[in-house]
Structures are given as C-alpha cells and as structure tokens.
Specification:
Transferase(Phosphotransferase), domain 1, six-stranded antiparallel sheet, 36% helix, protein kinase activity, kinase
Amino acid sequence: MVLNLLRRDKVFQPYEKVSEYKIERKLGEGRFGICYLISQGSQFYILKQLKRGMLKESGAKVVYEEEVLKDLWHGSIPRFISRIDQDNLCGYILEYKEGKTFEDIIYLDKHKFSREEIYGVGRQLVDILNYLHSKGIVHRDIRVPNTLYDGHSVNLVDFGLARWIDNKKYQSDMDFAFLGDFIIHLYYTTFVAKSRKKLPWYKELDLTNEEQLFLKKLMGVEARFGNIAEVEQAFNETYKRF
C-alpha cells in the first residue's frame, strides 16, 4: 500500500475503461482529486479519483466525503454510487448532475443575476443547508466552483471538507458565512463601480436595509444567526416580495 501511495497518479484519457465505465472527459482537478465524466451505456456518472499524495498526507480525512455522501439522499446532492479501489485508482463513482458551475456562469458567461434569480438560488441553497444540518453535517465549502446551475435547479457538490457537526471544532454556523459570500457574489454580477475607491460590500452594493442586515448576520458583521431555522425565517422575510 505504501508503494502504491508513492506512485504518480494516472491521468485517464477519453475512451479508456475504468471497471465497467468509459472515460468521456476530464472535468477538473483539485487538491484532493481529479474528476471525470464517465459513462455506462447511455448513463453518465462522475468519477472522483483521489490523489495518492493526499491519501498519504491526509489519511482518514479524505474518506469523509465518502462517509457523508453515503448518508445523504437529496435531489440537489449527488448520490454516492460505489467505491473503486484498484492498483492504479482509488476513488468513487457519483451521480452526474446537469449544469455549469456558478464560477463559469459568473466569470466566463458574464451572466447578471436579477433579484428574482438571487432569491431562487438562495432559496434552494437554504433548503439544502436545512437538510444537511438536520443530518448533522456541515459542508464548509459552499462556493461558486462547488455549485452547479442549469437555469432552474441548484446542485451542491464537492463534499471533501464536509464534517459531522460536533458543536466544537465543526459547528453548523460555519456554513452561514459561505452562504453569505455566495449570495454576495450574485449581487456583484450587476454591480457598476461609481468610483475607484474600494468600499466594503455593504456600502457599495445596492441593497435594501433588509438585505443588508440579512447578509451582515450571515457574514458575522452583525450578531450571527444561531441556527439554520433562523436563517430560513430571515431569508423568507427579506425576500418575501419575490
């Protein structure tokens, strides 16, 4: 096993076979792994290949994603299908979710999100967090590269940093600042700078008093929400006109 961990990671090419699956294309690469779009017949899946170096360095930490995903069943979260542990590959197969990352939508497509769209996206993220926290899980990485959108549905992916809530090191309110930062990213898609002077987001964005207070409480600028139920209630009150 030690020798295997010291070997370089194999990068799979299109049309190569992995177990009963065919590699379609490489989707991306992060610190912990490499993701591929794969297929079995007409059905698509995601292969997440865990990097050997990170397996050696982080040990049990890299298996949290597998443990967490096995415990989840939600339409906006990819289902865990199976684990693959071969000589040249350690990883797992996940359900394929349609859509582009919000990172690509914002920075490549230059899409400008309306208030109605921000409400729709935010509503779905709050619902996802409500589910995760009810299962005792904190995601800790709700960012624009880790969320998919097809114009209607939001999917939260990449659970590599997710942990079981212990109310000590891993607390549910860790997700609130990530949610706030995510929503602020959406507001900035319509922002037009009026001066060269850089101001805090709550001074330069065109926000209602209710929106500003809601986001400040998510970000911890004001007293932070105590739990996801408080977040949900405040979200509904803030965006009730939508």
